[in-house]
Specification:
Elements lengths: L2 H20 L4 H8 L3 H8 L9 H9 L4 H6 L41 E2 L14 E2 L3 H10 L14 H20 L6 H20 L5 H20 L3 H18 L2 H17 L3 H13 L5 H17 L3 H16 L3 H6 L5 H23 L2 H16 L6 H17 L3 H8 L3 H7 L2 H18 L3 H14 L1
Antiparallel strand pairs: 1-2
Length: about 475
């Protein structure tokens, strides 16, 4: 840091060191009480980094400075008073889902990470500093010892090993959700969420920062909301996403905020509410315009929103911006969202573009746009890992629907027939949505063809 900003943070660091020593605390002790690793406190005291959002106010409260550190930090764009627990009685409000589960570990997780960050999940206590993860057995044993219905058994501060272990579960839960057509893992995820919310409230009541636990809860809420949505339970899904956004906002977790906005985009698009979907897509891009991956996803979701209402020019412009953005992702982007790079990134971007162009073609009847949707969806399928079966089913149906929009019913029937029954059995909302669109397009244009009638009979359950 150079110039006046660097001088301000150097002065802030000197003042913080003075107050900390006056309180008789080590950097490690102070870090534990405000929810940050001692290395973060060390860097702030040395003037090597700006204090994280909301930390000056929390330090003032803890050290009894009379607001001196907040005054030194001054107003900063995007900064907010983050310690809202004591003043916000709704922060730990009743959360949805049952507080019971037969198992906590996700089924079929092949690898337990040795450290964090892992597959885009950073430590909510220490960020990307690098944290060891305790053995899975130790984490599960610790969870078993905690009575989720008795707050007196919960620690009065975030315990790093347990926080690390709960974070390490997230990549496994996410992988299970992506690779399996079943959504039963949502029960285990919501079980952990109830624990996290109770624990955060206990920590807050004890006068310590619950921010790390709320950041972790926001990530779990995003996954729970997505799985509820896949079950067709959009009200509960919206509730989890809403809770997650508030927790991410209080905890200053912009990555979680952005990801939660993507789920709002999807939910409103499934309701064919283009205006709301567009508003959420823009909100996603505004979370942090300096992060290329957020801008790229914002353009993708804006393209899909414009397509719903036939906004051809703007849809195509957003598609071009998304492709350019993907090519310019930097190292921070690749660390925060590794799934937006390599083959997996190609799948996500091209499948979204294919969906946008298909929706646009369905609205406008433009067969040239439908052919571009075919090509984009074919590209995404070519890069799709075999293990991602639900995505394969969804994209195969989208490809068939794109063929139908392009005036090629024979190709649509040939592509859809082998997967129709399996797709019906999944009951996943996004897959059923694709089935309904395909059924509508085929019946409207070629309902008199025998092969179309045969496939339409199979798809009729989805259309009801």
């Amino acid at each position: 840091m150079e110039g006046r900003g660097g001088e301000r943070w150097a002065e802030f660091g000197r003042e913080l060191r003075s107050w900390r020593r006056r309180a008789g605390l080590t950097q490690g002790q102070l870090g534990l009480r405000v929810g940050y690793h001692h290395s973060v406190i060390s860097k702030v005291e040395s003037g090597l980094r700006e204090p994280p959002m909301g930390l000056p106010a929390r330090l003032d409260e803890l050290l009894g400075t009379g607001g001196a550190l907040t005054a030194l930090a001054g107003p900063t764009t995007g900064r907010r008073a983050a310690y809202l627990g004591a003043n916000d009685p709704t922060l730990f409000a009743v959360v949805p889902g049952p507080d019971t589960a037969d198992r906590v570990t996700p089924p079929g997780v092949p690898v337990w990470p040795l450290g964090l960050p892992d597959r885009g999940f950073s430590c909510p206590l220490h960020g990307d500093d690098g944290c060891a993860v305790p053995p899975a057995g130790d984490v599960l044993a610790a969870l078993d010892r905690l009575d989720r219905r008795d707050p007196t058994t919960l620690p009065t501060e975030p315990v790093p090993d347990l926080v690390h272990g709960l974070t390490a579960l997230l990549p496994g839960y996410t992988q299970t959700a992506v690779e399996s057509v079943s959504t039963e893992v949502v029960g285990a995820i919501e079980h952990v969420l109830h624990l996290l919310v109770r624990w955060a409230e206990v920590v807050d009541t004890a006068g310590r920062s619950p921010h790390s636990l709320l950041r972790l809860a926001a990530q779990y809420a995003q996954l729970a909301g997505r799985l509820r949505m896949q079950r067709g339970q959009s009200v509960v899904g919206m509730a989890w996403i809403g809770h997650g956004l508030r927790w991410a906002g209080v905890g200053g977790d912009r990555v979680a905020q952005a990801m939660l906005f993507t789920d709002y985009c999807t939910l409103t698009r499934l309701d064919r509410d283009g205006a709301s979907s567009l508003a959420y897509a823009r909100a996603l891009g505004a979370v942090d315009p300096t992060r290329g991956w957020m801008s790229t996803l914002s353009h993708l979701y804006q393209a899909r929103a414009y397509a719903l209402d036939g906004g051809a020019a703007e849809c195509r412009r957003q598609v071009d911006l998304a492709r350019r953005g993907l090519a310019r992702l930097d190292e921070r982007d690749r660390t925060e969202v590794p799934w937006l790079t390599g083959d997996e990134g190609e799948v996500r971007v091209e499948s979204s573009i294919g969906g946008a162009l298909r929706d646009l073609a369905a609205h406008t009847g433009d067969r040239a746009t439908a052919r571009r949707a075919v090509h984009a969806t074919q590209r995404s399928l070519a890069h799709l890992p075999v293990r991602m079966r639900p995505t394969y089913l969804l994209l195969t149906l989208r490809l068939a629907d794109s063929y139908a929009c392009a005036g090629m019913p024979d190709a649509a029937v040939e592509v859809a027939t082998p997967v129709a029954q399996e797709a019906l059995r999944t009951r996943r909302t996004t897959i059923v949505h694709e089935l309904r669109g395909l059924h509508t397009r085929l019946c409207a244009g070629w309902g008199d063809l025998p092969e179309v009638r045969e496939l339409a009979d199979r798809l009729r359950v989805a259309h009801r």
